[in-house]
Amino acid sequence: MTTRTTRLDQRMMGLALEAATKGRTSPNPRVGAVVALGDEVIATGFHARAGEPHAEIHALRAAGQRARGATLYCTLEPCNHHGRTPPCTDAILAAGVARVVIGCGDPATHGTTSGAPRLEASGVRVTVGVRRDAALELVEDFACLATRQRPLVTLKAALTLDGRMATRSGDSKWITGEAARRHGHRLRDQSDAILVGVGTVLADDPRLDVRLTESTDPVRVILDTHLRTPTGARVIIHESKSPTWIIHGPSAPPARRAALARSGVELIEVPSPTDRIDLGEALRELGRREIMRLLVEGGARTHGAFLDAGLVDRAEVFIAPSILGDVEAPPLAIRAFPPQRMEGLTRLEAVQVKRFGRDTLIRGRLAAAERH
Fold first, then answer.
1. Which segment of 7-16, 26-35, 342-351 scores lowest on mean pLDDT?
2. Which residues are catalytic?
């Protein structure tokens, strides 16, 4: 097994990475594959949905007999176990591929010999680590679910230059312009579930659906220790093919449980040792329900609670070129416990800055030391 790479390998893996982004695979990883003979692309494939053939299978089927003696580029190590589908290694060996180039190893443990060693033991030349960072980022959500048993958490907020997310009266529509809001709906589209605290439900009565782009609504999740969510809230009565889940504590009144259950909501009880929901256990419950990507939209206390618990992996923060300037305005967008010294700041890595009309998006990954 080698890590040596060429410019051709880099280019072909780039095509595989691009193909992988077309899939909607949760709770499986997004994977792309390319079959090539020298610099000729014979076939490409991607994993479209969980339970359907993997990227390698699509590419090999499209290549047919031309796969024999060719090179197969895979963004993720081919599987060597029976899951929803048979092992991809069987199909690769049957196709007669001479070489397999892999972006990154499989982060999941399946209790069997992994794909790369089996291929190499069968006489296939294997190269691992081509465009590894990009390949790892592509499966970051899958790796989080596989290794931490919880979804990848992205914190999303929109605030003014002075760090406010609403006026004194609670009005927050709209801090950002239409282009930024459209991107926010794309983030919802890319997520398995969207989460808010009950305070946001009571203040804004949001629908938590996808409207500004064509797609399927994510699962709507509400943190509500004492089940204060009204049965007439739009997130409950709004027609959607996706369900609404409410995560609550053991002390939630039986009458409220019964009323919300009759409204069609799924209730999920988790421990609340300090009269606040144990967020770690809440995320593990979502992981058990195969939620792989979670978008946390607020409000301020919910943002802060996730940060204080070290349970935020990525952040998408929109900054609008506006100032509220009100000393009695609601609290800042993120109500976390402040550090005593500057070295305690929560910092982002791999930062990207994008413009959406007049608004600016700052996005990045939280430093590993600040995540659990």
1. 342-351
2. 56
